[in-house]
Amino acid sequence: MKLGKTKDSRTRRKHPIKIEEAETLKNQLKEQSEFIDYLLLKGFSNATVTSQTKVVVRFINWLNKENTPVISVSYNDILHYIQTRKVGLKQRTVSMEVNAIKHYYNFLSITHQVLENPTTQIQIKGIKRQTLYDVLTSQELEKLYHDFKVDETQKPLTVAVAKRNRMLLGLMIYQGLGTSELSNLTVADLKLREGKIMIRGGRKSNDRTLKLEAHQVLDAMEYTLQVRQFLIENKPDNKEIETLIVSTGKGAKINNLLVKVMKQLQKQEKKVVSIKQIRASVITNWLKLYNLREVQYKAGHRYVSSTEHYIVNDFEGLQEDITKFHPIG
Fold first, then answer.
1. Which CATH number fits domain 138-322: 3.30.365.10, 1.10.443.10, 3.30.300.10, 3.20.20.100?
2. Which helix (H) or strand (E) holds 109?
């Protein structure tokens, strides 16, 4: 079983470095080229490297106006800078800027340009990090799936769309897949003979292979052998695509069809809010059945702390603990 990183792990998933983009950035910010190399080697994407470097350049420009050398910056200097940036900016944005400056001083420390990192003890408070959801029980999720009917008397395209949506819903309810994971699935990821599906990791998730329910295998088999090709033939551009989920609109994006699926689910059950809520419900229900590490793997979390966040959604389990350890009377 491949587990993700713990919250104390200091390494990141490596991403392919786009050399041309990196060189362009280094030419634009020549004075910070070594810092850019440092971030790239840490495994950050080019977009993240660009944004973090720009934050550092802004910070250095501010230091110059304050006549404060970079190597002489103190804890109080950092606080002063944060105060100047707080005006008109969200807490999360300020936190991201502080994080970039932390990376910069880590770089300066590693390259022996400073003795210590003045940002070590700084943390921006008041950031909402975890959303509490009205969790759907396993029974409610099952009901959503089984009540999602396919009317075979409808037009062929309508029937095909319904069968696709039912298969997609199964992946949300039984494997807890989110929007990006559903979008990135390919036909090759389905292992029908094994009754499994492979989910590719992303910047914030790990690869994993999960078991399909028996009825999912039948749905997936019909979809891949018949329905999917029919949907491709009825697309406006009639273009072959590699993704598993095929939309009937132009292009390969499935955002619009997911919106329609959610609207149908909301008609079935008023408690349904979003795909994120369904995923949170699946993970919360898993935590009642499996240990933390197993759920971390099934959810694709890189850090076990990400899995721990979902424990707060289990109000029923929390109430049981309160009753068990602090009985009234």
1. 1.10.443.10
2. helix 91-110
